[in-house]
Amino acid sequence: MIFVWLSVLCSVLVSVLLKLARRLDVDVGQAIAWNYVVAGVLTALVLQPPLAGLRAPGAPWLALAGLGLLLPTIFLALGASVRHAGIVRSDAAQRLSLLISLLAAFVLFGERLTALKLAGIVLGLLALLCMIWRTGAAARSDGVAAWLYPLLVFAGFGTIDILFKRVALAGVPLGASLQAMFALALPLAFALPLWRHLRGRVRFNGRSALGGIALGLANFGNILFYLRGHRALPQHPALVFASMNIGVVALGALVGLLLFRERLSRLNLGGVLLALLAIGVIAWG
């Protein structure tokens, strides 16, 4: 289980780095761009994926292009969500995005809907509603961004999961698909900060590049250790899945509440607990 816990740590570390970006004078857009350079290089060096599947006639380039487009944009949405809504709700929304891929499995890929999985979906949707719900002074101070960006994270990562499923069904190995999508994400990831630079809104700097290197290491570490976790426990995929997702929500909640003193209502905290329960029910089902 050590690999799963390391993956959890790396996943939450990504959110922490995004949370600290402004305090450390790191431009999030530049950091995300450099992150894909680091992740792409590490994928080639560590995973050494065979790329033959990408040259096959039926290679799913449309789905891969969609991943290349979505990854940097949703990463930016995650950064905005962490800034406006906090680590607790952002990490939970990201992990609850599995509800979208689960629904797609029933609608698009012919998977059988069980009572437990249906209960998990209902609990997950209730959890999401509880986490983004803001009332009174909190709603006025946080504004639309506090619920809009977590919803974008939820929808975006769910769509990414569906596209990953499409790529996997086409027979492309995970390492090769990662290599392709990191390469495809690079032009857009650099185009956004370059456009802002040309308009005089931001300057490229070494601090943001260093932040991107740290972000890339954490991002790749999350992927690598999750794969290692599945490889170390091949007979227990549900255990790895549940431990990863529940671990990220739980650790993200602890870090957000204790380290960054994030403000959550009782309803928001109830949503986090419902998210943990939903993930457990889905994994068990």
Can you describe this structure?
The chain has 285 residues and is mainly alpha-helical. It has one domain (2-284). Helix content is 80%, strand content 0%. Helix 4 runs antiparallel to helix 11 and helix 4 runs parallel beside helix 12 (266-284). The radius of gyration is 19 Å and the shape is globular. Residues 2-132 form the EamA domain. InterPro entries: AA-Vitamin_Transporters, EamA_dom, EmrE-like. It is a multi-pass membrane protein. Keywords: Membrane, Transmembrane, Transmembrane helix.
Features:
single chain, 285 residues, mainly alpha, 12 helices, globular
Layout of strands and helices, then pairs:
Blueprint: H1 2-20, H2 28-47, H3 61-85, H4 87-96, H5 98-107, H6 115-132, H7 136-142, H8 145-169, H9 174-198, H10 206-232, H11 237-259, H12 266-284
